[in-house]
Amino acid sequence: MSDVADHGRLMDDVYRYQRLFYDITRKYYLLGRDHLIENMTVHPGDRVLEVACGTGRNLAAIRKRHPRALLFGLDISDQMLISARRKLDGAARLAQADACSFDPEALFGEAQFDHIVFSYSLSMIPDWQGALDEGIRHLAPGGTLHVVDFGDQARLPGWFKGALRAWLARFHVTPRDTLGAALQEMAGGAAALSGQDLYRGYAVYGRLTRQPEG
Fold it and tell me: For this UniProt entry, which residues form the secretion signal (predicted)?
């Protein structure tokens, strides 16, 4: 079985039952998700894709703030998509796909998106740099990549950082300590980056905007 299929099966096993109470429990430690959503400038008709959309919680929040946006979501876990379909009830187009290699035209009939969201997903994707590269590849000129995930917790007490990471590892979650640096490297001359550490480095938030053509 391929690595992608293995990871999809692992995520299904992890979330088969967790998805039933995921949103209730995760609000206490997936900090910064609402910060990301509140800082999105979405115009009517904008295409918004969330990569690894999970239960659809973020897409539902985006829909509430921007009811005229076109919403899309993909996830490698069919179990998570069961919850997302119920939550969104047709308000978003959803598909099962790998974050590191997907064909949006085949999945959604869209080649590019005005906004692509990664919310606490990169810490669960083995090839997280590949997922970011894939996201940029499908971003429309002038579009924005929005990212929030665990930071390096460097300014938090050592005991807290150690306990948090040991607990996260039980759920196959690995904070990406170089996420901020990776976003800076991706910006280069083709995109503009803004962002910040949140909650003393507990989380990192970034917006990478692709330069318009011409």
Answer: none
